[in-house]
Amino acid sequence: MPELNLILLGPPGAGKGTQAERIREDFDLAYIATGDMLRQAVAEGTPLGAEAKSYMDAGDLVPDALIIAVILERLHGGDARDGFLLDGFPRTIPQGEALGEALRGAGRDLTGVLMIDAPDEEIVRRISGRRVGPASGRVYHVEFDPPKVEGKDDVDGADLIQRDDDRPETVRKRLDVYHAQTAPLVAHYEDRGLLHRIDGTASPASVHEHVRATIATLKLEADV
Ligand code: AP5
Question: Is residue 102 classed as helix, strand or coil in its secondary structure?
Fold first, then answer.
């Protein structure tokens, strides 16, 4: 059975994590989210976390050399060998090139890149209302996707938290970094015929339907 090797691309707060949670229920894919991995490393106080923290708090990207090694190791091991969904990687052209080279070297291909987009103003609104379950990682929005009980995680009832890098001034910085360093990947993947654009301004359910249908088509094409 051919692998589905997918990337979720898009600005911070466009809805990548929200959709990833739903897609993982639809398709059996190893989910690799660099932001989650880095936040876990920070929480556990590992050497990676210690090095990454100051970059993340400032809204900067962590250095390519640091993140590329971690992700390539993860891709070649365990569950990711049968297909993966990358969220938050690659985020620079060198990261994209390193990923392409590593996959080619292993005789594997990328199946598609799903670009979820939304304008900057919408992103600032979304991120300022984002809340997260500290243990479950479930993402909410106080207005657009609220929990059943205000301030409590639907999964385990824990108090919801706001991410350290979701302060308005850090969000603006993250958007600038996105436009300067990550947006060039859109043309990179478009040139390779891999890019699929998804309008991220629709409701979470509509975006999910579009993402799900796009992946289902890619899966059918990969199966023939
Ligand atoms: P990371 O955790 O990857 O953050 P990000 O890309 O900035 O993405 P977000 O998690 O902020 O947004 P999202 O698109 O997942 O949106 P969400 O679904 O939550 O990275 C954090 C940091 O780690 C980086 O700044 C960097 O320092 C470092 N890092 C990570 N990867 C790296 C790499 N490869 N190289 C170097 N450094 C790296 O949605 C946002 C909100 O909107 C939620 O509240 C949600 O409920 C709501 N929402 C979602 N969809 C909709 C909708 N359709 N309508 C209305 N509201 C919606």
Answer: helix
- Per-residue pLDDT tens digits for 174-189: 999 999 999 999 999 9
User: Is residue 113 a contact partner of residue 196, using CB atoms and an 8 Å limit?
Assistant: yes
Smallest CA separation from ligand 1 atom 13, residue: 13
Instruction: Please give the number of the atom of ligand 1 that sits closest to the Cα of 200.
Output: 53
Strands across the sheet containing 83-87: 30-33, 83-87, 4-9, 112-117, 195-199
Token pair of 200 as six digits:
């991220």
Please name each of the domains of the chain with its CATH number. Answer: 4-29+82-223 (3.40.50.300)
Confidence of residue 1 (pLDDT cuts 50, 70, 90): low
Catalytic residue among 108, 125, 152, 163: 163
